[in-house]
Amino acid sequence: MRRRFAGAVVLAVCAALTACAGDKEISVGEARPEARKVGIAWKPRQAVNPAQWPNACDLVSSKEIKAILPQGKLGQPWSQRVVVEPSDSVGPGGTGRAANGQCTYMVELSHRSGKAMYRVNQLSIRIEGVGDPALVTKFFARTKKNEQSPEEDNGVDIPGTDACFVHDTSKLEPRSVVCRRGPLMFTVSTGTWNVDTVVTQTRIIPAVIQTVAAKV
């Protein structure tokens, strides 16, 4: 059965519009994508070479993250290189290096312990592939199939995307979601995250994904 992130019921341990960091309530806002697009040029039956991928940090701005986590104190985002091997390529021409293929934000939120190690949370946006949407669709389906057992469907419905699935998770704590939107396939992950898991799954990750999808 497919799961829905958007509109899911948050457990009673937190209020409907808050996440919990220890005993602290953290407000979670709605996605507010800026009115801009990240231009992606692609050719039929080809992948976009990683050297021509958009900068992942252009997919979500600090202002947009603040809309989702208004109480968060953000550090400067940093870009990371993504290397695409032939087996991980969307299609012809899609092998190489993207100098800015992943963007990571550190988000500091209040925590009852007062310790920095519990206040700082990691949020990453990683580009997985760019190209002809038909090739991206096939690559997404192949990747999703490899990430689930035959008897399960780890797909999730998130408004604004063409399709998404939960990646690299345990049943208790899914923290990484892969999505596609037109010529772009990307992953949003939370890494170390000390906010209530249920709200992270149902509110924070989907809001970031909707913000990215709105740029395509």
Whole-number mean pLDDT: 83
Rg over C-alpha atoms, rounded to the nearest angstrom: 17 Å
What are the segments in which pLDDT stays under 50 over at least 5 consecutive residues?
A: 5-17
Q: How many beta-strand runs?
A: 11
Structural class call reads: alpha+beta
As a percent range, the share of strand residues is 25-35%
- Molecular shape: globular
Q: What percent of the residues sit in helical stretches (DSSP H or I)?
A: 10-25%
Number of helices: 4
Instruction: Let me know the largest β-sheet.
Output: 9 strands, mixed
Features of this protein?
single chain, 216 residues, alpha+beta, nine-stranded mixed β-sheet, two-stranded antiparallel sheet, 11 strands
Please, could you describe this protein's structure?
The chain is an alpha+beta fold and 216 residues long. Helices cover 19% and strands 29% of the residues. It contains 4 helices and 11 strands; from the N terminus they run βββαβββαβαββββα. The two termini are 28 Å apart.
List the helices and strands and how they pair.
Blueprint: E1 3-4, E2 18-21, E3 24-27, H1 62-68, E4 73-74, E5 78-84, E6 96-108, H2 116-119, E7 120-130, H3 133-146, E8 155-157, E9 163-166, E10 176-181, E11 184-189, H4 197-213
Parallel strand pairs: 1-8
Antiparallel strand pairs: 2-3, 4-6, 5-6, 6-7, 7-11, 8-9, 9-10, 10-11
Briefly summarize what is shown.
This protein is of the alpha+beta class and 216 residues long. Helix content is 19%, strand content 29%.
